[in-house]
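Cross-posting from the chemistry board since nobody answered there.

I work mostly on the small-molecule side, so proteins are not my area. We synthesized zinc ion and want a rough idea of how it might sit in this target. Sequence and SMILES are below. Is it possible to get a predicted 3D structure of the two together?
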Amino acid sequence: MKKRYPLKRKVCDHCGATYYARSHRARWCSAVCQSQNFRAAKKQTQAELEQEFVAQEAEKVNKEATQ
Ligand SMILES: [Zn+2]
């Protein structure tokens, strides 16, 4: 017998709507929100990656300086 996840009331990560999900991994009320959130996250990620890269490089320099 397959295990079924109980229904959970959740709030969409993208539009804030309340929805019911069977999967504990679901984060959006619809495929539209999922794809829009993915696109937004992708955009954000590029800027964040740049920031992360800069921070990473700075950390490297700091480590080398303290060793
Ligand atoms: Zn939504």
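Reply from a structural biologist on the board:
Welcome over. Reading the output above for you: The first strand starts at residue 8 and ends at 11. The helical segments are 31-66. Happy to explain the token format if needed.
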